[in-house]
Amino acid sequence: MNIEIIPYMGYCFAFMGHRTAFSDYFAREAAECGKLLCAKLDDKFAGYICAADIGREDRVTYAYTRPEYRRQGIFTALLKEISESSEMPVKVNLPAEHEYHDTIVHVCGKLGFARGEDLIVYTCRPDTDTRWDEFMNNRGNRICEHLKRCGYETVSFAEADTDIIGQIRGSDKSGFGNPFETASFFDEPSRKLSRELSFAAVKGGELAAYTLMSQPSREKCVLEQIAVSRNKRNTGAILLPIARSISAFRSDGCKLGVYAVYGSNTPANSLREKLMSTAAEKVTENYCRPGHANNNNNNNQEEKQI
After folding, report:
1. For 66-75, b where at least 16 C-beta lie within 10 A, e where not — what string?
2. 238 with 209: CB under 8 angstroms?
3. Where in the chain is the domain with CATH 3.40.630.30?
4. Are 305 and 173 in contact (CB under 8 A)?
5. Dihedral, 68, 70, 75, 81 alpha carbons, nearest 10
6. Minimal CA–CA distance to 227: which of 202, 194, 203, 200?
7. How many CB atoms lie within 10 A of CB 99?
8. Which residues does residue 95 pair with via DSSP β-bridges, in sequence order?
9. In degrees, to the nearest 5, what angle opens at C-alpha 245 toward C-alphas 270 and 132?
10. Is 13 in contact with 6 (CB distance < 8 Å)?
């Protein structure tokens, strides 16, 4: 079996008839800023894998094997090549309902990938706005006023100073208890970060909590993350940025549609149970393999925490 880098146009030609708009997007992304690898058997194109370089890791975004070459180790060989050739950690994001879920999990385990956090995407019901309004009128507004008297202030990402933005960017590596890659929203325009709709709660110059919003289109806003520092949990601080975000995008003509949180994000999941009426949920499992350049003691400790 031969594995080689393939350009985007080469992929288009080699897999004509096996392409979709979805696969084309990830293939183009991998060719431009990552790795697009193709496997050949008997000099025939058998499959490919897409991995995007997002700055701190290579993320496997798509893989495909032609039906006639399945169960012959194509995906295993491609994922192994990505893993062994990358100096950065390699992450596989796998939808729980994926057609080949069990096979992919088996391959990941065989190649040294460890199970990480599950990302849960919730879709809100039409009555979510009503439930939110009832909560704010009955309790939420009083809580926000109390927090302000205690020295908390709320600032949008658009108006926050460089120190606060730096704390937000590094929050997934500090005391916020989740591995959410916040910095990628600042670094990648394709993530559609809305600085005007994202807010942080701050006390004495220290980041306490924040909401991160994206705006894929004029009509659609996505509450991507609700995060609160461990030492500010059970203070109600998370309510300040949430209330500001919801107010901002509703005044912009939008309604709360979807939001995503990691399974360990206790404040966000608690909020969902109390206030958010959800219609459905999707679970994406994360599997990570540390990079070869990160095998020192400090990074081994980080690996244990993933």
Report:
1. beebeeebbb
2. yes
3. 2-116+288-296+300-305, 126-276
4. no
5. -60
6. 200
7. 8
8. 284
9. 50
10. no
Q: Which CATH superfamily is domain 126-276 in?
A: Gcn5-related N-acetyltransferase (GNAT) (3.40.630.30)
Token couple for 304: 């244990």
Rounded CA gap, 47 and 224, in Å?
33
The DSSP element (H or E) to which 65 belongs, if any, is strand 58-65
Question: Position 242: which residue type?
Answer: I
**Helices 266-275 & 128-135 angle (0-180, nearest 10):** 100
**Cβ contact 116:93 at 8 Å:** no
Under DSSP, is residue 169 helix (H, G, I), strand (E, B) or coil?
A: helix
The span from the CA of 266 to the CA of 227, in Å, is 9
Do 58 and 34 meet the contact criterion of CB atoms below 8 Å apart?
yes
Query: What is the number of other CB atoms lying within 10 angstroms of the CB of residue 3?
Result: 20
Per-residue model confidence as pLDDT tens digits over 189-203 = 878 899 999 999 999
What pLDDT, in 10s, does the model give residues 67-99? 999 999 999 999 999 999 888 889 998 988 888
pLDDT digits (tens, 9 = 90+) for 41-58: 988 999 999 999 877 788
User: Global pTM?
Assistant: 0.67
70 backbone dihedrals φ, ψ, rounded to 5°: -75, 155
Arch. (CATH architecture) of 2-116+288-296+300-305 = 3-Layer(aba) Sandwich (3.40)
Q: Could you give the 3-state DSSP secondary structure of residue 16? A: coil
Q: Mapping DSSP to helix (H, G, I), strand (E, B) and coil, where does residue 152 land?
A: strand
Residue 283 and residue 46: Cα distance in Å, rounded? Answer: 29
Residue owning tokens 């994926």 = 98
Q: How confident is the model at residue 250 (pLDDT cuts 50, 70, 90)?
A: confident
The whole-angstrom separation of Cα 141 and Cα 242 is: 12
Distance from first CA to last CA of the chain, Å, rounded?
33
